[in-house]
Each structure stands twice: as structure tokens, then as C-alpha cells.
């Protein structure tokens, strides 16, 4: 099946404000975007949770990486709405809407972990041919360095992660 080419890519850092690798990379690329720009592709580095980054804490009111579900994205904006829910709605507006043809083609969401897992790619859909081929390319480009792929697919699970806004979501974890 012919699919349109990938034209819009976002790189997220700071989904969790205390995971600084992605924050530092995004800030670097916001100042010097030439490193990530490619002809015919728009690449947008984006700081997802700036309040949590400023406080160097995982989140302010709730985990931003768990609120991209239909209930939260459709929630009315009222005074006491949790900060991360409001932020999820803003991100969905900028990079989505989730599940639409207008959504960004690809979102890389950069994270850190204290687990000894090294650089790891997170795959949510084993039937996404584009993402599988991209992961294959990344793994070959990094060889001989190890780069495991973690499949977190579940047939009835609706993903509520920041990256789930994109047509092709990618999580990337580093130690």
C-alpha cells in the first residue's frame, strides 16, 4: 500500500521534567536546528512539560505521559483542570489532533530511566511497517552498539502517551 511520505516530525523532551537528556537535546536543537533539519521534512523540537522542567520534577499535577486519552483531551478547560491535562490539550492541538490525518507523522519522545537498559526504542504497534523499518535502520546505524526494541503492544490498550498523538509514535529511553 502506498503511503504518503513522512513530512512532519516532532522531537519531544521534558515529558517528565526530571529526565534531563531530552530536555537538553531539545533546548540545543531549538537554538541550533540545522543539525536536525532535512530537505522536505519539517522537524520541530518541543519542550513538552516546561513547568515540571523548571522545577526539575516528574510532573506538576499528574503524569503528562498518561493523559492523552479521549476523556482528558476532550475535557472542558476550567480553572481547576490539572496543568498536565491542559498541556496535553495544547500539545494535541499543535501536533494532532490525535488519530487524524492532520496529526504529525512522527513523534520521538525522549526519556531517561534508572534501569540498566541503555538506549532502547519503544514500539507500540507491531503492524506499523514504517516504524519497524525505521527501527531496523536505527539499529543498523548504531551497530555494533546494542539498541533493544521494547514492544508494549496490547490489543485492547488505548495509548495515552505524548507520542500517541502522532501517526507513528516512538519512545526512546536512555540511562
Automatic annotation (TrEMBL):
Keyword vocabulary terms for this entry: Cytoplasm, Hydrolase, Metal-binding, Zinc
GO MF terms, alphabetically ordered: hydrolase activity, acting on carbon-nitrogen (but not peptide) bonds, in linear amides; hydrolase activity, acting on ester bonds; metal ion binding
Highest taxon above the source species: Eukaryota
Keyword Iron: no
InterPro entries per UniProt: AspA/AstE_fam (IPR050178), AstE_AspA_cat (IPR055438)
UniProt-listed CDD domains: M14_ASPA
Entry's Gene Ontology cellular component terms: cytosol
Pfam family, one: AstE_AspA_cat
Cofactors: Zn(2+)
PANTHER family: ASPARTOACYLASE
Family recorded in the similarity comment: Belongs to the AspA/AstE family. Aspartoacylase subfamily.
Protein name per UniProt: ACY2 Aspartoacylase
Lineage, top ranks: Eukaryota, Metazoa, Chordata, Craniata, Vertebrata
The encoding gene: Aspa_0
Amino acid at each position: 500500500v502506498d503511503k504518503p511520505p513522512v513530512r512532519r516530525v516532532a522531537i519531544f523532551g521534558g515529558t517528565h521534567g526530571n529526565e534531563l537528556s531530552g530536555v537538553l537535546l531539545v533546548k540545543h536543537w531549538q537554538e541550533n536546528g540545522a543539525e536536525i533539519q532535512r530537505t522536505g521534512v519539517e522537524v520541530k523540537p518541543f519542550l513538552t512539560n516546561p513547568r515540571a522542567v523548571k522545577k526539575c520534577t516528574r510532573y506538576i499535577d499528574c503524569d503528562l505521559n498518561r493523559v492523552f486519552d479521549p476523556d482528558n483531551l476532550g475535557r472542558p478547560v476550567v480553572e481547576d483542570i490539572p496543568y498536565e491535562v491542559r498541556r496535553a490539550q495544547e500539545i494535541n492541538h499543535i501536533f494532532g489532533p490525535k488519530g487524524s490525518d492532520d496529526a504529525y507523522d512522527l513523534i520521538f519522545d525522549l526519556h531517561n530511566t534508572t534501569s540498566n537498559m541503555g538506549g532502547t526504542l519503544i514500539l507500540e504497534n507491531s503492524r506499523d511497517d514504517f516504524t519497524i523499518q525505521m527501527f531496523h535502520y536505527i539499529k543498523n546505524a548504531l551497530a555494533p552498539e546494542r539498541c533493544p526494541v521494547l514492544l508494549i503492544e496490547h490489543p485492547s490498550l488505548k495509548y495515552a502517551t505524548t507520542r500517541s498523538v502522532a501517526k507513528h509514535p516512538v519512545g526512546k529511553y536512555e540511562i
